[in-house]
User: Fold Shikimate kinase from Streptomyces camelliae.
Amino acid sequence: MGVGKSTVGQLLAERLGLGYRDTDADIVAEQGRSIAEIFVDEGEAVFRAIEKRAVAAALAEHDGVLALGGGAVLDADTRALLAGLRVVYLSMEVEEAVRRTGLNAARPLLAVNPRRQWRELMEARRHLYEEVATAVVATDGRTPEEVTQAALDALELKKA
Ligand SMILES: Nc1ncnc2c1ncn2[C@@H]1O[C@H](COP(=O)(O)OP(=O)(O)O)[C@@H](O)[C@H]1O
Ligand SMILES: O=C(O)C1=C[C@@H](OP(=O)(O)O)[C@@H](O)[C@H](O)C1
Ligand SMILES: [Mg+2]
Assistant:
């Protein structure tokens, strides 16, 4: 969360001359309400079910760069759909995460104690990100443009 998937995803798509899509944006458009509203109104389990459908639809329809929400990989079927695709895991340390997400209420899972909540989420998820990734790019101290270049380099290496 806040590592730059949406920001870098758009830049990456521009650099590759491909389309860009973001499953959180798809969900907001389909539901007609914000991610935070879905969490508040219906809870995380309902959000995850909506997200699972949105990711499957996007992977089926879209041929380009796709940014996922940070929790999409919690679902085993979603992880299976990612197998065989080029998946970039953007990483960062906790201090960078707090700087980037701040007290932004748009991310309900970090709303109360961002530092502690982020650490706990990463402990639970790191192995899943590593499982689905075909390339890992550290983003600390890098601008979005530098991260994009590093992702291109990492993807290029993977092609060889
Ligand atoms: N490399 C970066 N350096 C500094 N700030 C960044 C970087 N990448 C993204 N940001 C900022 O961090 C915030 C979260 O970025 P976003 O792309 O929405 O992340 P994600 O989609 O992974 O949650 C935004 O305010 C964005 O401008
Ligand atoms: O990591 C998560 O569980 C979430 C990440 C968010 O997307 P970003 O990773 O784009 O912030 C969004 O899907 C929702 O708030 C839940
Ligand atoms: Mg995003």
User: Anything to note?
Assistant: The two ends are 30 Å apart (CA to CA).
